[in-house]
Amino acid sequence: MLIAGVLCMCAAAASAGFGSWSLSQSQNINSTQVALRAMAPTQLAAAVMLTAGGVVALAAAPRTALVVLIVCVAGALGTLAAGSWQSARFALRHEASNFKPASCAGSCVACTQSCQ
């Protein structure tokens, strides 16, 4: 359980590092940056779950630690998967709201569509 606990703590540190880095970046209108920034809370939540699993793996009895470690890792992976799905949807909606047809060219006089 020592190796599993240390690996879990390392994964938690990496997830927290990526989440903190995403939050520290300036807020751009680039859809990639928006998606990365939207993933930050999910990465921080996964880091908390992995930290809890790592602490239990290091401190508890082996049978209990194994069950808790499996639950924590599965929860962290599920949280990351759901967060990825949601941030991708958010980025696509953000990209679609900024889309202007090529025929408008910034001038609403030239087209019959609303170019707002």
Structure description:
With about 120 residues, this protein is mostly helical. The protein has one domain (about 1-95). Helix content is about 75%, strand content about 0%. It has three helices and no strands. The chain has helices spanning about 1-25, 30-60, 60-95. Helix 2 (about 30-60) runs antiparallel to helix 3. The model has no long low-confidence stretch (mean pLDDT about 85).
Profile the largest sheet: none
Listing every helix as H and every strand as E from the N terminus to the C terminus, the arrangement reads HHH
Gross morphology is elongated
What class do helices, strands and sheet pairing give?
mainly alpha
Number of helical segments? 3
Number of strands: 0
Termini separation (Å)? 58 Å
Q: How many structural domains in the coordinates?
A: 1
Helix content: over 70%
Q: Beta-sheet strand percentage?
A: under 5%
CA-based gyration radius? 21 Å
Rounded mean pLDDT is: 84
- Low-confidence segments, given as residue ranges, are none
Describe the structure concisely for a colleague.
With 116 residues, the chain is mainly alpha-helical. The chain has helices at residues 2-24, 31-59, 62-97.
